[in-house]
Amino acid sequence: MIRDRVVPPLVALAAFLAGWQLLVFVGNYPPFILPGPLVVGERFVVAWTDGTMAPHVVTTLAEIGCGFVGGALAGMLTGYVLARSRLANRVLSPYLVAGSAVPILALAPLIALWFGSGLFAHSVIVALIVFFPVAVSTWVAVHGVDRRLLEMARSYRVTRGQRLRMVELPAALPGILGGLRIGVTLAVVGAIIAEWTGGETGLGVLINLARGSLFDIPLLFAALLTIALIGVALYSLVVLVERRYAIPAV
Amino acid sequence: MTAEPGRALREPGPATGDGSVPAIFLDGVRFGFHVDGRQTEVIGGLDLEIAPRSIVAFVGPNGCGKSTLLRVIAGLLPARAGTVEVEGRPVTGPDARVGLVFQEPRLLPWRSAFANVAFPLEVAGRDREARERRVTDLLGLVGLRDWSRARPAELSGGMRQRVAIARALALEPAVLLLDEPFSALDSLTRERFNVELLRLWERIGATIVLVTHSIAEAVFLADRVVVLSPRPAQLVADLVVDLPRPRRPGDLDAAAVTRTAAEIRAHLEGATDDAFAVAAGDVPAHAQPDQAIP
Ligand SMILES: Nc1ncnc2c1ncn2[C@@H]1O[C@H](COP(=O)(O)OP(=O)(O)O)[C@@H](O)[C@H]1O
Ligand SMILES: [Mg+2]
């Protein structure tokens, strides 16, 4: 039933907004400490209609797009090699574990130092944060491909490329998509962190401006709302792809 | 058929009375696995000749090396010593002349029945039109034409195994190897599948080697029953099943069936590694339910 799927989330959203408004009302917080949902909503609409928001969103989306694609491709490649080459596994896996433990917050200023603060530098930071979960999930997924299916494929003399395309990728797809699902939300985080290290536009830059020179806290909340919406939209996109292509094993 | 020099010197096997090139020829075949740096011996020197278009059943105790032997014949595992030939030419790797049906269907779960049967044809680079024609034929052959769009998860166990057989036949192999093909099915379905298998065999004209734990099944299907010893697998007996074809479950000469079955059982008792089965004077327990089929 569509009503069962739509109504409960709407009720929850209404309750959340009401609670928020109530908190502001009871605490009597001024808008520059905690603006209420109505104030934020109004600022959100104004920022989108007067052209404040759009250029920042475009920049952030570009960084997320480039960084996610680059990081995901590199992650899948690395994960595949780790799963299929014993030598690569022995040599590389310690670095993968170590690398995923290093907080991106610490790396971001270094990358800004090396590559500046343009689209490329920011995409590198996004790519880095996407890389690790995708690499690890691909590794696990490819490693877990049913050996009996691989033997079946071998009995028909598959080439390496055919094995990858016709057996390993489809079999590992659910696991890889799980990594992409984590990666895509991290990509949003990565883009904001990247923009904090410097840059002309971007939602991270807008947050800094709203908190600093503009001192427009409702605008800061409107930027946060935009970021959250981007995250939800991208996540849903991956889930959609998952529904369409990933068929779970019997 | 090419007549190689030296071929004429070979003694024809029991069913190769006419001296034609055997479909399968094993000469001193040995095989073992490396386990923890040590060599195990799984197949211990096997000689065998199987005539074209015959059906041969391998029986032997659990873990004696039957599945391994099929893999060696299919070229999935390299013999450590000896010769493996199919239609007079050596097997050096996975081989298109051999179709292997594993004990489980091993279908790709994300592909439809149709696309699973098409898999070997895609791998071999056949064009779409040729693939569609061949797959449609094959699905008709195994009675699944109406199920071509179904995913493996939507098929019954028996249907999946039939898809696997159709897939193994896709490249028109001269030899079809079946590893306990119907062992997961209930005994009634299994009986029906055996009849279907014989019909299929009459239409495709391939040589069939099947591994089975059921003596009844072996007698009903095969021209010859090869009894193997416990690991390392060696030939214990090579028995001719002298029953007329076409065979139907009802009209086999009961006395001949019983005699052949008793003979196989006697050899298996000598070969079994299962103390209880020996004590009970019977074949391993898992072969019992359908002994009374023919
Ligand atoms: N990949 C493998 N590595 C090591 N030993 C194996 C492997 N596959 C099978 N074996 C061993 O080889 C023997 C024969 O196995 P198998 O051919 O499967 O027996 P069967 O099919 O007759 O029951 C068994 O003892 C088994 O443990
Ligand atoms: Mg076996």
3D architecture notes:
The complex is a heterodimer of chains A (250) and B (294). Chain A has 250 residues and is mainly alpha-helical. Chain A has ten helices and no strands. Helices cover 83% and strands 0% of the residues of chain A. In chain A, α9 (203-211) packs antiparallel against α10 (217-245). Chain B is α/β, with parallel strands linked by helices and 294 residues long. Chain B has a domain at 53-72 and 92-271: 3-Layer(aba) Sandwich (Rossmann fold), CATH 3.40.50. Chain B has helices at residues 66-74, 113-123, 128-141, 157-169, 187-204, 215-221, 254-271, 275-279, and strands at residues 24-31, 34-35, 38-39, 43-50, 55-59, 81-86, 89-90, 98-101, 175-179, 207-211, 224-228, 235-240. Chain B has a six-stranded mixed β-sheet with strand order 8-9-10-5-11-12, sandwiched between helices. Chain B has a four-stranded antiparallel β-sheet with strand order 4-1-6-7, covered by helices on one side. In chain B, strands 2-3 form a two-stranded antiparallel sheet. In chain B, β2 and β3 form a beta hairpin. The model of chain B is unreliable at 1-16 and 275-294 (pLDDT under 50). The A-B interface holds A 148-149, 151-158, 162, 166-167, 170-171, 247-250 and B 74, 76, 93-94, 96, 100, 102, 104, 106, 108-110, 119-120, 122-124, 151-153, 171. Bound molecules: adenosine-5'-diphosphate and magnesium ion. Adenosine-5'-diphosphate (ADP) binds next to α1 of chain B.
